[in-house]
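Sanity check record (used in CI):
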Amino acid sequence: MAILSLKLEVVIFLYFLFVLLSFATAWVACPRCEYKGKVSYFSEESALSCKQAYISFLILLFQFMQMKIGNDPDDVLMRFRVGNLWSLDFIYHAAGACAYGSMALDFNHGYLAAASFDGNEGRVCGRCYRVRCENKRLCKREGTTVIVTDELTNSNSNKKVNFSLSRKAYMAMAKKGMEKQLLKHGAVHVTYKSYPCDFFNNKNLTLRVEESSKWPDYLAVKVLYQGGQTNLYGIFAYPVSQVDPSHMMLLSRNGSAVFDNIVTSGPLKFEFVVRDDTDNLSIFAKNVFPADWKPGMIFDTGVQIRATQSEGCYVNKCPNDSW
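Expected output for Expansin-like:
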């Protein structure tokens, strides 16, 4: 009886070992995972015809409300559905929850996307994704690259939604002459994946001092032209004369592309913390942040983030072709 019980235990152990090894071999490091999904687009023509006053009003309103809604797409491709957006939606999604304001209207030449945040505190802001339509009759193979400028709300028309593309980005997936046909579909099946933001024309990582900042001790900065394919986890500020851990001040993300905290007066040195394939990566700004900073100021850090981060994917989700 004891021998039978021992054999049964060995069989059970070997079974669970087999299952464990199966999962281990099926889960691999991959530059970018791919999943199937569905996208639609939001209207922009009617929005772009609005007066600049409406843009300014919306930006101030969104910043005041500090809207926090939605779900974040991982660095992997997922199945999703996107609803149509109307009227002021192009301005809303360009200038909304990521707090880019009217600057976002010029990002990536208008190839924009709204995405769900899913509790990751806005780390998807400024991230880039490559989207490829699967309708071979209407769409070209290479797809289009978009940058996330806003959070996608979970309204009745956007249930189970992860992405909504600008009309321009949506049409860019089409073959020449098929743009109108693609628009008539309203929503199409796609493959999408995280993608490096390498279309900033060699612009350096840049900070914009927000209007909410109070010189000399409360600093809020908006991160522009992040680049690469990683999450920016935090910004450390140091007095120029004391760049060591005992004097660092952490500027943390406030749910958008903005980082803020109380800082000491005087010139500052910034350290940006992202994660690459193996560990946290620290990137120090080459330029010194001036002591006489003021709201609205644009600060060129003198550095670019080009790091990428592999993702854990099942083998069948790891692409075997290039886009």
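Helices lie at 2-26, 45-48, 52-65, 89-95, 167-172, 179-185. If this sentence no longer matches the regenerated tokens, the check is flagged for review.
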